[in-house]
Design a protein that fits this description.
Number of domains: 1
Distance between the termini: 31 Å
Radius of gyration: 21 Å
CATH class: Mainly Alpha
Structural class: mainly alpha
Number of strands: 0
Oligomer: single chain
CATH topology: Growth Hormone, Chain: A
Length: about 400
């Protein structure tokens, strides 16, 4: 039986829910954090500490969410996820004190494990597995507008509304927009068991002799994503206040808005020209772009053109990283158990990201922005080294497979 391709309407529908999901559950937090801290009478760094705990909790449930997606279907999992996200945002909006807000924040991150990229990528593979790499790229291309839309949208709303009112609006978006869309996706048929079995077979590039250390490769991949998550989470959560504090004033928000278009541009470039590259090589390129952008920020700030190029490079790297988070496990290990593996990738990223916002805020407070950037650059280079190791192992595996076939 021929395997169907993911329909365009599925990609657009998931793109809309990913924009809302990331915008309401993630990108809005850094804009609203100062007002939340003031209202709840807690230090700002403690608030980011609560976010770290919430991210850790989300990472703990991610592997379980991936296994459930494999078992029950990703679309079915996203329905209660949307409802939970809306309820968590409402609970945060009405939180009378910091402890209740902390519980609500944890609930948001738990819900995110069921509605964001990990589950969405699995839905694409399950509903239309053919050309899954390309479909995932299309989804990330659309979802890349999340920061571009929600950073300025949240800031504009906050000029007229309290953070509590904004969270109520965001809750309505998850329940009234995302929930019906995910309900429709849950009704779409999955590929047949035969198709899944056939498609689950690794490609020649992903296949390997039995002697090759597949578990080692998986652990190196998780470590690479975890280290990369440290850099991405640190900078993304603090980008607007960090760039503003580096002497750019109100231009900081405008510069940070370039990050979203840069993500979209990187995904569009990959969609048009990336077919010639393996996903492991794409991962190396993405990992190198992040510390390169940070080096430029460190060297040029507050020179405006240099900071603009930083935002573009970092956005390019982040955009490609979102793609390889879904496509690299697929290339290395195939479709069998894809949801569970993606859950572990999400967990690896969030375990490290759980500590990154608080640690980076502490570092900036204690040692200043420049020293904090040096640390982030070092960590980014380590991530590139780990992804380079994966690319080398894949290249060697390909040579071994070719020699055996000959």
């Amino acid at each position: 039986m021929s395997e169907q391709k993911a329909p365009a309407r599925l990609i657009w529908a998931l793109g809309a829910t990913q924009i809302i999901g990331y915008g309401t559950l993630y990108y809005s937090f850094s804009i609203l954090a100062p007002a939340i801290a003031t209202d709840l009478v807690i230090p700002l760094d403690w608030l980011f500490g609560l976010l770290s705990v919430a991210l850790l909790c989300g990472g703990l449930i991610a592997p379980k969410a991936g296994r459930w997606a494999d078992r029950f279907g990703a679309g079915r999992l996203m329905v209660p996820g949307s409802l939970a996200a809306g309820i968590a945002l409402l609970a945060a909006a009405f939180a009378p004190k910091a402890t209740i807000f902390a519980i609500s924040l944890v609930a948001m991150e738990l819900a995110s494990a069921f509605v964001l990229y990990g589950t969405a990528f699995t839905a694409i593979v399950q509903i239309g597995g053919r050309s899954a790499h390309r479909s995932i790229t299309h989804l990330t291309l659309i979802a890349g507008f999340a920061s571009t839309l929600f950073w300025p949208l949240t800031a504009t709303l906050h000029e007229h509304l309290s953070w509590r009112s904004i969270y109520m609006i965001f809750a309505a978006l998850n329940i009234l927009v995302c929930l019906p869309i995910h309900g429709w996706i849950s009704l779409l048929p999955r590929t047949s068991d035969k198709s899944e079995t056939d498609a689950a077979k690794p490609t020649p590039q992903a296949s390997a002799p039995a002697s090759m250390p597949r578990n080692d490769l998986f652990l190196i991949m998780l470590a690479a994503f975890a280290v990369q998550g440290l850099v991405l989470s640190s900078i993304l959560v603090h980008m607007v206040p960090m760039v503003t504090a580096m002497g750019l004033g109100t231009a900081g928000l405008m510069i940070s808005m370039l990050f979203g278009p840069a993500q979209v541009a990187s995904r569009l470039t990959n969609m048009l020209f990336g077919g010639r590259l393996s996903q492991s090589m794409l991962a190396v390129i993405a990992a190198l772009l992040l510390p390169t952008g940070l080096v430029l920020l460190f060297a040029s700030s507050p020179w405006l053109p240099g900071v603009i190029v930083f935002a573009l490079l970092f956005g390019f790297g982040s955009g490609l990283s979102s793609i390889i988070g879904g496509t690299l496990p697929l290339e290395l290990f195939g479709r069998t158990g894809y949801g569970a593996r993606l859950g572990w990738v999400t967990a690896a990223r969030q375990f490290s990201s759980a500590f990154a916002p608080f640690a980076f805020a502490f570092s900036m407070e204690r040692w200043g922005i420049n020293q904090s950037l040096v640390i982030a650059i070092t960590v980014g280079c380590l991530s590139a080294l780990l992804f380079g190791t994966i690319a080398f192992m894949q290249s060697r595996r390909g040579r071994v497979a070719t020699s055996m076939a000959a």
